[in-house]
Amino acid sequence: MISVTFTSLDLLLHTEALLSVMNFLSAALSSSSLPSPERETRGRGEESRAVSARSTATGSPSDSDVIDLKVMMTLGAFNVLVCDQSCNMADIKIQGINGSLLMQGPQTHISARLRDFIVINVDPKSVHKKAISIVGDEVFSFSMSLTPNATEGAGYADTSKTDGRVKLNVGCIQVVYLHKFIMSLLNFTNNFQTAKEALSAATAQAAEKAASSVRDLAQKSFRLSMDIKLKAPLIIIPQSSVSHNALEVDLGLITVGNSFSLLPVEGRPLPAVIDHMDVQLTQLKLSRICMEAAGGARTELLEPLNLLLSVRRNLAAAWCQKMAAVEVDGDLKPMKVALSQDDLKVLLKILMENVGEASGLQENVEPAAQTLQTPSPAHTDVAQRPSGSGHQEAELLETIKFNFNIESLGLVLYSNDPKQPSGLGRRQESLRLGELALHLMKASGKMLSDGSVEVSTVLTACTLDDLRTGMQRVTSRMVGKRDEESGEAMIDVTYRQSSDQREVVAVLQRLYLCASVEFLMAVADFFIQALPQSQPAAAAGQVDRLPLRQSSEPRSSSASTAPMARMRLRAVVVDPEVVFVANLMRADAPALAASFQCDFSLQAGAGGQSMRANLRELRVLACPFLRSAEDKAVTTVLRPCSVVLETKTHPDQPLTGSVTVEEVIVKSH
Length: 669
Fold this sequence. Notes:
The protein is globular and about 100 Å long. 18% of the residues lie in helices and 47% in strands. It has helices at residues 15-32, 37-59, 179-190, 193-202, 204-219, 341-354, 381-384, 517-530, 537-544, 558-561; strands spanning 2-6, 9-14, 67-83, 88-104, 107-121, 130-146, 164-176, 224-231, 234-238, 245-250, 253-263, 272-290, 298-314, 326-332, 335-340, 398-414, 432-448, 453-466, 477-481, 491-497, 501-509, 511-516, 566-574, 577-581, 590-605, 608-624, 635-649, 656-661.
């Protein structure tokens, strides 16, 4: 038995010191990875002796009662300070770590518990000091049991037996996301990019052996039973490092469990093992909060949401192509988001201020990183040598297949409440502006082994309603489907991606749009008023300089010379109706109704770009706002006509195009 106890362990992670250590390890591993006939002969002898020892050990039933190794570890406190030459970045404090390892015959048992964990942002200007903290008594408890021979022989057909069991319980973790703090840590790790490449090259032979072991393990269909419960992780995104306005994402309770089944495969002596995993996300919430207010003032933006995921993994995907390697089915219950002008202001300020604060960071790679010793090409022959199977063209297989069903997605817009200056509190129904809803949406797709992707999304109906109070109107429906009782899809979008082509096909059928100038102006004013009115010149300059790529790796020269993938876009609009009306209070108010058919296509590639838009059967009628089939007060303003627009562009050549318009007859009184 081995017992290890630390009362306190302090660790300082300094950029230059770590680079020096990794430089030393890189040189040491490079020299130790040199091939040697004597070392290979000795390795094969040791491997054969280990195999014979394992076979002897598995044959003795009494070995399961003998404890081969027992290790107990206790760590009272573990402190890590991350810094560089210019400043301190983060202070990590871990308390109460208990771990144990028990090896008893072929069985291995591992357990660990963590009582407290906190990451402190040491930036003196920030009012949010706790970047990661724990809400509750215990961070997590983990246990794992491995029984490698449990599913061999007769146990293969018993789906109740597993090679390993994992149980994980995670308490409530609170994360305060400040983009500047996260980017500073990422820049800290980017300093070691060269060192990571050197270590990867130096350990190429070990990686090759590990990959071989993984392939052997995949043939055995390793079964791992999981019981995972994650309790209410909280993600808080402040408006900035000095603001108490924030967005809170409560992930509720995440539960993961799995079971196993057998799938017979023709021509194979053993059936394939299928891992069925159920993931449940319950009571997900999204709120806007003020972290300074007493009592935690908040406004709920997203009603509690439940998501169910069913994941099936083919553990024998290497030789069983009867099903995809991973199949995912999702079911999202009705989701409704409530958004006011103040809510939208905070969201936009998070994008501008929280994200914009990171623009002041500079990616300073320490000079020591340039002195890292990389192994010579002779040391990395194993990593560069292609395997024999790489020359053979593999058959395209489905690696991922998914299908999601969404009952409805709703967005309700609210005007600001003058009685609540902070904008936090209960919503008033009388302040509703409008509601956008997507009904019965289905998304399905697959990914193949060559990286190609195909995704299809079908939306049964889309509606937009005017919910303003204090005004009379004959209808509140602004957007909808002309035949609401029809089961046909209103929107159908298909996306296909391959190594050399991207294709999008969208079909919109029987759209009804009421273009009410008054309502459109009200919606436009909602978004205009939510935009930030002004910002300091310094902040504006920082936003303009917002880095889009946080990496110290040099850009590869091959990226600029890579061939441009072809892109094809096609949009088809079938039988829409657009009604222009100024008065919503009368059903017989004069209106203009336009209908048409549209076919739009766009193709782009290295050889140029071509576009074609065909507008057919364009017709405009003067009629009552709400008319029936028997209504005769209809006048044809524009008789059906067609318009065709074509444009073409080629490299180093001007744009060329043509417009073809059929006979246009406009009738006026």
